Amino acid sequence: xxxxxxxxxxLLEIGWAIGLKYTQGFSRLWPSVATVACMALSFVLLAxxxxxxxxxxxxxxxxxxxxxxxxxxxxxxxxxxxxxxxxLCIAMILAGVIxxxxxxxPAD
Length: 108
Description:
Helix content is about 80%, strand content about 0%. It is mainly alpha-helical. The protein has helices at about 1-25, 30-50, 55-80, 85-105. It contains 4 helices and no strands. The protein has one domain.
């Protein structure tokens, strides 16, 4: 169950990272409210997941999901670069996340 919480926390991290673009410096109310809600829920779910996942693994997976997902959505939503090297780097982040999951030992 902890891994599901961690994945959800990572997806919410993508939500708040993308949400920052729509807040326009927190000058727009509803995008700002949604972004802050995603931030808070992401941190709560990360904290719950870290009860049984080692902190180094959990944090790396959380940030990896957020970084890769935000980069992909940046390409899809904002027309950011689709350079092959950039896509390869995103794939390496995902490979690292999968590797951490496969090699994770339970927390003490």
